[in-house]
Amino acid sequence: MTTSREVHLVARPEGLPTEEDFQILETEVGDPAEGEVLIQNLYMSVDPAMRPRLTAGYELNQAMSGSAIGRVVESRAEEFAPGDVVSNRHGFKEFFVSGARGLRKLETIQGLPLTVHMHALGGTGFTAYGGILHIAQVKAEDKVFVSTAAGAVGSVAAQIAKLKGCWVVGSTGSDEKARWLAEEAGLDAVVNYKETPIRKGLGEVATAGIDVYFDNVGGDHLDAALACMNERGRVAVCGMISGYNEPGARTTVRNLANIIYGRITIRGFTVADFADLHAEFLRNMTDWLLRGEIRYQETILEGIENAPRALIGLFQGLNAGKMLVQLGE
Amino acid sequence: MTTSREVHLVARPEGLPTEEDFQILETEVGDPAEGEVLIQNLYMSVDPAMRPRLTAGYELNQAMSGSAIGRVVESRAEEFAPGDVVSNRHGFKEFFVSGARGLRKLETIQGLPLTVHMHALGGTGFTAYGGILHIAQVKAEDKVFVSTAAGAVGSVAAQIAKLKGCWVVGSTGSDEKARWLAEEAGLDAVVNYKETPIRKGLGEVATAGIDVYFDNVGGDHLDAALACMNERGRVAVCGMISGYNEPGARTTVRNLANIIYGRITIRGFTVADFADLHAEFLRNMTDWLLRGEIRYQETILEGIENAPRALIGLFQGLNAGKMLVQLGE
């Protein structure tokens, strides 16, 4: 038996979640049966899309789930040996026992930390890759606007657009993040929406309009983008974080009529829309990371007791880049 | 010289236009020069898309414009002879002189009134045709929702969807229109949104969800559709009449975040997106009309002095089907 801690959702938040909505419980994890492995999680992810699941999706008084990277401690499954590092969906737990299903062995890549599998080479990176290339179909010379551009998805989407020869403007919520976007990620323009209302800020810099908007925010950001969109513009909607803490995850948009004469397409997507691109994504992204053409930031909190704070912090802009929680070493 | 009356916009309305925003003026129309024709308009169109142009687009104290059908009175252009019937963009005028550009000769079709060129065989019919077939790409078995389904565009879009084997629900604002939709146009379900809020009414009848929404309304109708959309649903946005009388032609939408997990596409369009389909449209629509497979309604007011009232009436639901003004015989 192994002692493990896990995070339960104990109350459904209205508005911004608080630490009281979560509880850390200690449990005993049994030994693996034939075909199973015991895994210690090393890192877990928190991401904005978890917010709607707090309202409906996650069970109350059950361990939450999410993506994680762990190390095999004990194996009774042929496919795995102790020491193997695997990605899994058992975040919010320190240890767990699992069959082989849902575990994917990760190869360590010389020159890159393990944690890149949690962002640039993981779900957020793939979301950005497929969203900007497959859904938004950016091409050289496009004027591209990416919201929450310093976030895990936005920063990758914005940099891929740069690599493809686009002019790219990003929005973010602090001067420090704005500096990173301009100096490290190489964006052409950055709007700090906490200093300048996004509608005004975007209008001032996007003097040639916007052909593509990669939306992580909805609400005022989407309205600002629609006010600037060129004819036949495309909006790829990855998330609408502005509404996630509203009842029913609602975000209010008022400029939608602009899409008629602009002949604009707005498309919601998830990675399921381009699952066939995954191998190509891994190849390209690994190259870009190794060559330093895609840069990233990580914010890592230590210990499962900080998982609720990490999740809440996403909505307060506490993270630079990908927000992770380290659960083991 | 010919005496003609024309409609000027004399004030920019805020909200619903009133008759005081317009003025009927008498002018003298000169004789056609070499290459020109003198035309008497017989019918002119009013349509919802004219509303945003009242705010910005139409010049103040100038004759308004819009689509019309007229008869050549005098011709000094090779292409036209007196008696020819031509479509033109000189609505809101009884008589006008024009070069050949922008005039299109109309053939009378045995068995169909001339006025079908103003709706089912004209711009509204083509908008519906391309919108439902090319933009929304309806296919058999799709569950289709059409708003303002008794209107000039909606009624054609809904009936084409029926012809393609779809299940079709329409929304409209009176019991009389609802009856026409069910009994004449053959829709599977109709919601009178003035009796039942559209969100509730649509939810009750669309028990298998909605795959395609043909939007003429925006606002609450779009929200209702998004609440019912099946995965990979498509929204073809033709108009957003709900916002046309708001400042900046804005319509408020709150369910937009549904498009993410639903992987829904929302696409604004105008006829410019499928101009290449026009010949095919004319062939198919003529057949459908002659066989009675596409039915239509017309509301015709008499005399140019009623043109402002006709335009205002569109936003009050006064029209059944296409709203026209007869300017001559």
Question: What is the topological layout?
Answer:
Two copies of one chain form a homodimer.
Chain A: E1 2-9, E2 22-29, E3 36-45, H1 50-55, E4 68-75, E5 85-88, E6 95-99, E7 104-105, H2 123-135, E8 143-146, H3 152-163, E9 167-172, H4 175-183, E10 189-192, H5 198-205, E11 210-215, H6 219-228, E12 229-237, H7 258-262, E13 265-268, H8 278-290, E14 298-302, H9 307-314, E15 322-326
Parallel strand pairs in A: 8-9, 8-11, 9-10, 11-12, 12-13, 14-15
Antiparallel strand pairs in A: 1-2, 3-4, 3-6, 3-15, 4-5, 5-7
Q: Can you walk through the features of this model?
A:
The structure is a homodimer of 329-residue chains. Chain A is α/β, with parallel strands linked by helices. Chain A folds into two domains: 2-118 and 297-326, Quinone Oxidoreductase, Chain A, domain 1; 123-274, NAD(P)-binding Rossmann-like Domain (Rossmann fold, 3-Layer(aba) Sandwich). Helix content of chain A is 26%, strand content 27%. Chain A contains nine helices and 15 strands. The first copy, chain A, has helices at 50-55, 123-135, 152-163, 175-183, 198-205, 219-228, 258-262, 278-290, 307-314; strands at residues 2-9, 22-29, 36-45, 68-75, 85-88, 95-99, 104-105, 143-146, 167-172, 189-192, 210-215, 229-237, 265-268, 298-302, 322-326. In chain A, strands 3, 4, 5, 6, 7, 14 and 15 form a seven-stranded mixed beta sheet that branches. Chain A is globular, with a radius of gyration of 20 Å. The first copy, chain A, starts with a strand and ends with a strand. β13 of chain A pairs antiparallel with β13 of chain B.
